[in-house]
Design brief:
The chain is an all-alpha fold. It has 7 helices and no strands. The longest helix has 29 residues.
């Protein structure tokens, strides 16, 4: 089968849309390696499908973007509550400061867990070194 017949039969569209069988996909890859015209036609079909998709796309409601942007702005302004009980009890003024957005915060429990795991690994490596040193004597 020549490449012009392969293109005109609609096999290329079937493969690009995902309706092809595995045998047809392997045949497509085989012809793609042999005929560079199929690659050119593939790119043209992809452009046509993209234009069609954008032409037929349903646009979201106009108010949706403003609603999303307002929600994002509202979430960004929420202060972090720290030590309000202490401040009320001792008449101390504590400012509510939000953490920097580019810093990651980790709970103390995870830090303790990580340190204890590293200590256990180091202890097991040390024990195995001592064991093999004693075994070689």
């Amino acid at each position: 089968m020549d490449h012009e017949r392969y293109i005109s039969d609609g096999n290329l569209e079937k493969v690009l849309l995902g309706f092809a069988t595995p045998e047809e996909e392997s045949e497509y890859r085989f012809y793609l390696d042999i005929f560079p015209e199929i690659q050119t036609e593939k790119e043209e079909v992809e452009r046509k499908l993209e234009r069609l998709a954008f032409k037929e796309a349903a646009l979201p409601p106009a108010h949706l973007k403003t609603a999303i942007m307002q929600q994002i702005a509202a979430e960004a302004v929420v202060p972090v509550v720290t030590s309000t009980w202490y401040a009320q009890r001792n008449d101390v003024h504590i400012e509510h400061v939000a953490p920097p957005p580019n810093k990651m915060r980790v709970h103390v429990g995870w830090k303790i867990l990580l340190i204890s795991l590293l200590i256990m690994i180091a202890a097991s490596v040390l024990a195995s070194v001592i064991f093999f040193a004693m075994a070689l004597k």
